[in-house]
Amino acid sequence: MTWEECMETLGVNDWYGCKMGLQPTRNLLKKCGNPENKLRFIHIAGSNGKGSVAKSLQQILSLSGYKTGMYISPHIEIMNERYTIDGEMISDEDLKRLCLKMRELSESLEEEKPNSFEMLTALAFCYFLEKGVDYVVLEVGLGGRLDATNVIPHKELSVIAHIGLEHTAILGDTLEEIAREKGGIIAKDTPVVLMHQKPEVMEEIRRICKEKNAKLHITNPKYFHSYSFHIDNGYQYFSYRERKEYALSLLGDYQLDNAMVICDAIDCLKERGISIPEDCVKQGLMTVTWPGRFEILKKRPLIILDGAHNPQAVNSLVRSIEMLFPNYKKRIFFSVMADKDYMTMLELLKTNTLSFSFFQVESHRGQNPEILKEQWQAHFDGEIRCPESLEEGLEWNLNAVKKEEEKTLLLCLGSLYQVGQIRNFFRNYYSSH
């Protein structure tokens, strides 16, 4: 089901709505019979990496024999991706039926009505309860404290991935303020796993944990070691604490940071009496797939697709390229939301880049390519293009990297909202060539 079809079925047309708060979701869930009270959650917040952590935890729990639901946002191609059980998406029939149910219950409310994201979140809880899942891996939509997912009354574990400056108009202007919002998912007497990061973030999370009597586990890079990567093998290898030479299918140096979070989260769940065989941890990390996250679409020519959409993610992406593919020149295909700090993102991408192609995301929030070109040409001496269509832009870049010496790659990035279209283009291109 597409976003448009889903919104039409829900009977709403807002883009999530700007007002943050838990009451509208609570109102709707009460009408649903409070399904959230009967589910067991692993709740994940963060600016970058929370989706990769969520997907990996689902994979490991599923392999361990638990029926595991996962709710994430945004999707890449279709709405069904947001709701999976053991990796399998919700059917169109179930999604449509539950959208109609949410619409009917929402319209019957006398209190403040929920926005689309709040309705989609309530839908997740209804779906997972219906299907009798053992656990739900729950990704925060925005922030944490006032996010619709934070209505859950209890959780097995709270996980906080990397925190950076994002959505500052809503979450606050400093890392401490944003950490306070993300730390809002921390529950009383419930363990927390936090990625090791900037001191001000860790200090704020420590403070909240102390207040809530929540045991805090911070990843420790001192016990981490990674090994050299070769593209033909396709895995990154790492050792962390007692785990030695594990293969990681997700690529990029930030995925190595995420791997520490995943391992510590698994150990916390084991401490809570959840049986997770070590073979399933190893197998899960080796087999997990996550489209649009340092995804190598083609090895020759080298085409990389990444949903990096803020300076922190772009910085990690650039570091990963330098680590995995040193001395490569880049051609960049870039689209971005207008409210992002895109000039900083472009500065980070500039080194060793031959050209930039700007394209507008299919969203009313996407930045106009001509504005990007106008602002960027004073900072970049190479070629800047604004193709007429996504297809034309990708084909031009593809032809360019094919003609050049081997050490040139095509990097497509800037927004998760364009990932689906780009994957489709290359899928169709290579099936017909």
Automatic annotation (TrEMBL):
Keywords: ATP-binding, Ligase, Magnesium, Metal-binding, Nucleotide-binding
GO MF annotation terms: ATP binding; dihydrofolate synthase activity; metal ion binding; tetrahydrofolylpolyglutamate synthase activity
Start and end residues of each Mur ligase C-terminal domain: 292-415
Name the UniProt record assigns to this protein: tetrahydrofolate synthase
Domain Mur ligase central: 44-261
Catalytic activity of the protein: (6S)-5,6,7,8-tetrahydrofolyl-(gamma-L-Glu)(n) + L-glutamate + ATP = (6S)-5,6,7,8-tetrahydrofolyl-(gamma-L-Glu)(n+1) + ADP + phosphate + H(+)
Cofactor list: Mg(2+)
TM regions (residue ranges): none
Similarity section: Belongs to the folylpolyglutamate synthase family.
The organism of origin for this protein: Oribacterium sinus
GO cellular component, one term: cytoplasm
EC number(s) given by UniProt: 6.3.2.17
EC main group: ligase
InterPro entries: Folylpolyglutamate_synth (IPR001645), Folylpolyglutamate_synth_CS (IPR018109), Mur-like_cat_sf (IPR036565), Mur_ligase_C (IPR004101), Mur_ligase_C_dom_sf (IPR036615), Mur_ligase_cen (IPR013221)
